[in-house]
Design a protein that fits this description.
The protein is α/β, with parallel strands linked by helices and 402 residues long. The protein has two domains: 242 residues, Ribonuclease Z/Hydroxyacylglutathione hydrolase-like (Metallo-beta-lactamase, Chain A, 4-Layer Sandwich), CATH 3.60.15.10; 142 residues, Rossmann fold (3-Layer(aba) Sandwich), CATH 3.40.50.360. The strands form five sheets. Strands 1-2-7-8-9-10-11 form a seven-stranded mixed sheet. Strands 18, 19, 20, 21, 22, 23 and 24 form a seven-stranded mixed sheet that branches. A six-stranded mixed sheet has the order 12-13-14-15-16-17, with no helix packed on it. The longest helix is centred in the last third of the chain and has 20 residues. The termini are far apart. 45% of the residues are buried.
Length: 402
């Protein structure tokens, strides 16, 4: 018999899956889709937590109608105004004209800007609470995780934290909703990729929220993010650890080599460096071609590994443009505490090293070894220098073990 999934009795999952969209934010590939999670609390008052992308509003409202059977929704809580979660608010207001919308001051500025809604607003601040029957909702401000209006909502009776995009992942929900019921392993890669692409710049703000939760502890049995699985005690500590590590910019021992190559000569240097690192006993070595690896996968590994090695040819007396782009994406995310090494190539005018050096200055990463420069095809001398650079990178990683 068909049933709308429940998190606990009276708290329903009314989210939707998107397996049609090719790219999240029209930038980041969705290899396995994405979910837009929304939750309906049925008590003396009916409360909806966030909505979904407007493209899926028909499925969304159908689910709500099956649960409520004509009963109105009293409150909408807006934890996050990004359109993939707020896109259906205008239609929701048309369907339930008397609905009251709960949010903070920054929420309402965006609500007016996106939907022209200025009435029936209930403004909340840190620590405020609203009783809805046997349940009571309280609010935790979480600005810049990853928009300025973001807040969390805590439902005290069932110990549920509605966490907006925090602890979110890429990946549709394939049948299961709760982490404890599914094979969770497939989501860890997508969580790290989601964090690196979407939340990555805002690590200090994630840490501020973590400190707030530590200083004012609440008992949590369920964490309901707006993307991905609902977390329970089965795996939430692991999800929390991932977000904690990434938001501190902590890295695993390993090297991420990112290269561009037009005809294969620069790639030979990348492989030579990788082999030298591996030969010294470093297990985690990943090599990304800027031609075939998506930037989202590259960013994930920049967040994941301590040593970052960049290599590219000169192009039109400048830098191979895909390299310039990935450096820009890394800089935007303000990734900290990495080691940096460079290599480059040309036929007649070596500009790539000079350009990469200038572009990476703002990163303030510790430089390992001298850049390796190659003119035209690799020679034994150049390959030896590349191997020496790899050995220096590996040695630095090994020293960190002490």
């Amino acid at each position: 018999m068909f049933e709308i999934p429940q998190i606990t009795e009276g708290i329903y999952y009314v989210g939707v899956n998107d397996r049609a969209k090719a790219k999240f934010e029209n930038v980041w590939p969705l290899y396995k889709g994405v979910s837009y999670n929304s939750y309906l609390i049925v008590d003396e008052k009916v409360v909806l937590i966030d909505t979904v992308d407007v493209c899926y509003s028909d499925i969304f409202f159908y689910k709500i109608d099956l649960i409520l059977k004509g009963r109105p929704i009293d409150y909408l809580v807006v934890d996050h105004m990004e359109p993939d979660h707020s896109g259906s608010i205008g239609l929701l207001k048309q369907k339930y004209p008397d609905i009251k919308i709960i949010g903070n001051k920054k929420t309402f500025n965006m609500l007016n800007g996106y939907h022209g809604i200025t009435e029936n607003l209930v403004e909340v601040e840190e620590g405020m609470s609203i009783k809805i029957g046997k349940r009571e909702l309280s609010f935790i401000m979480a600005p810049m995780v990853h928009w300025p209006e973001v807040m969390f909502t805590y439902e005290q009776h069932d110990k549920v934290l509605f966490s907006a995009d925090a602890f979110g992942t890429f990946g549709a929900l394939d049948g299961h909703i709760l982490d404890k019921d599914m094979d969770i392993d497939k989501y860890w890669y997508e969580m790290e990729r989601y964090y690196a692409c979407i939340v990555g710049k805002f690590g200090p703000f994630v840490q501020k929220v973590f400190k707030k939760l530590q200083d004012n502890p609440i008992e949590i049995d369920y964490v309901c993010s707006t993307h991905g699985p609902v977390w329970t005690k089965a795996h939430f500590s692991e999800a929390m650890a991932v977000y904690d590590r990434l938001s501190k910019y902590e890295a695993y021992e390993g090297a991420c080599i990112i290269f561009g190559s037009m005809y294969g000569h620069t790639e030979i240097l990348a492989d030579t460096i990788a082999q030298a690192i591996a030969k010294k006993g470093i297990k985690n070595v990943v090599v990304h071609s800027l031609t075939s690896s998506d930037p989202s996968d590259i960013l994930r590994d920049v967040f994941r590994y301590k040593a970052i090695v960049l290599g590219a040819p000169t192009y039109c007396n400048n830098l191979f443009s895909p390299m310039e782009h990935i450096i820009h994406l890394i800089e935007l995310r303000e990734v900290k505490n990495r080691y940096l090494s460079l290599f480059g190539s040309c036929t007649w005018a070596i500009q790539s090293i000079k350009k990469m050096t200038a572009l990476t200055e703002k990163l303030a990463w510790e430089k390992i070894g001298e850049p390796v420069e190659m003119k035209m095809a690799p020679t034994p001398e150049v390959l030896n220098k590349a191997a020496e650079l790899g050995e220096q990178i590996a040695q630095k990683l090994i020293e960190d073990r002490k």
